Amino acid sequence: MISKNQQKLIRSLELKKNRRREGLFVAEGPKVVGDLLRAGYVSRAIFSTTERPDAQLVTDDELQRISFLQHPQQVLAVLEIPPHPTAVPCVTDSTLALALDGVQDPGNVGTIIRIADWFGIDTIYCSADTADVYNPKVVQATMGSLAHVHVYYTDLVQLLKQATCPVYGTLLDGRDLYQEELTPHGIIVMGNEGNGISPAVRALVSHRLLIPNYHASDSETAESLNVAIATAITCAEFRRRRGNN
Questions:
Q1: Model pLDDT, residue 245
Q2: pTM greater than 0.85 (yes/no)
Q3: What pLDDT was estimated at residue 170?
Q4: CA atoms 130, 135, 138, 139: torsion sign
Q5: With helix as H, strand as E and coil as C, how does 74-102 read?
Q6: CA-to-CA distance for 201 and 24, rounded, in angstroms?
Q7: pLDDT per residue over 98-147, tens digit each?
Q8: Pairing relationship of beta strands 75-80 and 43-48 according to DSSP bridges
Q9: Average pLDDT value over all residues in the chain
Q10: How far apart are the two ends of the chain, measured CA to CA in Å?
């Protein structure tokens, strides 16, 4: 049986301030929980509707009361947030990284982490106003990829000022992604859902890219792409070029 104190603690972890105070976050589902545990995340408690040696057995109704999902997925784990690194690693001239500038929708952030994992990008830099990586919705949307991607919150302006590699950004005044020369290394900046890349960060973008649309000139079209979809398209083109080199 889940105690009232346990239930209260778990539900409180929906809020960032409580996650930071307790140093804990919630992960749900066999795959997400399994990937994080295998990656070395430390569990404080695991609740499962099926018997497993590392979990407390609970009923479906009990899991429903502590889950953040509309349809709980058999297992929920309370995990420790790893210690913050004393220093954020610099962008190097030999890797490809992402930077999220004010991406605030948790689903988008989680999906972008999953996209980065798929395309072999293991580092993401985030501005302070980007959604918290340990938000339950972010964790769920990563589908376990949080275990494989390093996410750092930092001052993007200072980070990019120190970068010695190309800084790419998707902008409406950019040049066609499919026509521009792309290097196998650098940092790709993706901006806020409504406002795009902030002016201070935009000023540091050395290569402005545009994902072209292909609608007929006399017809209406979507004003923009979802930031996660735009990230996938951009990463795919970078990796395609690497494969063709």
A1: 45
A2: yes
A3: 93
A4: positive
A5: CEEEEEECCCCCCCCCCCCCCCEEEEEEC
A6: 31
A7: 999 999 999 999 999 999 999 999 999 999 999 999 999 999 999 999 99
A8: antiparallel
A9: 94
A10: 58
Phi and psi torsions of 231, nearest 5°? -65, -45
Q: Encode burial over 148-166: b for 16+ CB neighbours within 10 A, e otherwise.
A: bbebbbbebeebbeebebb
**Secondary structure letter of residue 89 according to DSSP:** P
Half-sphere exposure of 114 (CA within 13 A, CB side): 18
Helix (H) or strand (E) holding 173: strand 167-176
pLDDT tens-digit map of 202-243: 999 999 999 999 876 666 777 789 999 999 999 999 999 876
Distance of CA 204 to the CA centre of its chain: 22
Chain position carrying tokens 């302070």: 128
Q: Report which residue type is found at 73.
A: Q
Helices 106-118, 227-244: crossing angle, 10 deg rounding: 10
